[in-house]
Amino acid sequence: MIVADSSSAAPAAPGFYAARLAHPGAVLAPMAGYSDAPMRQLAAEQGALWTVSEMISARGLVMGGDTEKLNLGRPYAGEQGRAVQLFGAELELLSEAVARAEAWFAPAAIDLNMGCPVPKIRGRGGACLLQTPEVAYELLHAMRAATALDVSAKIRLGWDTDRSVEVAQGLQAAGVSLITVHGRTSRQRYTGEADWDAIARVAASVNVPVVGSGDILSAETARQRQRESGVAAVMIGRGSVGNPWIFRALADGLEDAQPSAQVRARTALRHAELQTRFYDDDTGRLTLRPLRKVLPRYLPDYPDLHAELTQVVTVADVERVLSPLLGDGATQTPATPAAAEYAVSYP
Ligand SMILES: Cc1cc2nc3c(=O)[nH]c(=O)nc-3n(C[C@H](O)[C@H](O)[C@H](O)COP(=O)(O)O)c2cc1C
């Protein structure tokens, strides 16, 4: 009989975040109304280090009758490397939500939202937790006890003043595997500029990896911010809407380059197709509505197409509007699912 000998056992495999951070690249930000499965798929194919779901209410998951079919949490077929973000402030609900999210959504890690400035959802979660960080530490402790996956937190600098170093140190003591910092206070919402000096102070004050978030619109800025602030990686939100190629540039060490209009138009069409497939609506009548704000972002230099792109109802509409740019073989799926490259093994 072979008896496990802990003294000679191989060192524990690194957790998900540590394994991914061994690669170059940037992270797709959680964005309610944007970072759904189709957007995450396009980002992952372009080499995003990992992606984060839109925030999901812990209360909704546990009490609301939401199931594994919940579109906010459901992965696309074959999805890997996606953290699920939970929103909440009640200990038992969050613990239960972690267990459900893990069982239903196959996440690679679980993240706690400590940055949402407009809690629409009942409870004092999101950025409210920055006013009572002791509560957040307890929540994270409980979340960690509910799963063997990495658990992380995404914060803003503070509620109305910068408390980020204190909060990050408390989160580290609570056992998080990673902290993401959006360099604004909650009061600032999205105004002003993200304070990367403050993000740098957080990165210098804890041992767990810190990911920086705020106002990254190009690969060049991403590299500069990462270098100057000492963060383990940067996260990109608004700058990746209609621009998944920003992840490819950062994964492969390339300069910023706009793909041709044809590639951008084909990707916009593919986004519409993925959307229709994921939400399982062949007509696209309902599901293309949220994409109307996104499609023009693929083609900022074609303003004359924007009005029509914001009125599309079906995939055929998207194809018709984009037809001058699509060229032959428009509906072919690009044969570069680079996601497999990033399918590093993790526990
Ligand atoms: C439309 C929108 C929705 C967002 N939703 C979330 C969310 O669900 N969870 C979260 O932690 N942050 C959310 N954020 C914040 C982003 O993750 C990110 O930290 C912030 O936008 C700054 O990064 P950026 O300048 O690259 O967009 C959202 C931001 C936007 C613009």
From TrEMBL:
Record EC number: 1.3.1.-
Pfam families for this protein: Dus
Coiled coil: none
Source superkingdom: Bacteria
UniProtKB keywords: Flavoprotein, FMN, Nucleotide-binding, Oxidoreductase, tRNA processing
This protein's record includes keyword Cell inner membrane: no
SUPFAM superfamilies, sorted: FMN-linked oxidoreductases (SSF51395)
PANTHER family membership: TRNA-DIHYDROURIDINE(47) SYNTHASE [NAD(P)(+)]-LIKE (PTHR45846:SF1)
Family that this chain belongs to: Belongs to the dus family.
Amino acids binding FMN: 30-32, 85, 154, 182, 237-238
Domain DUS-like FMN-binding, chain residue ranges per copy: 28-287
Keyword Oxidoreductase among record annotations: yes
Protein name: tRNA-dihydrouridine synthase
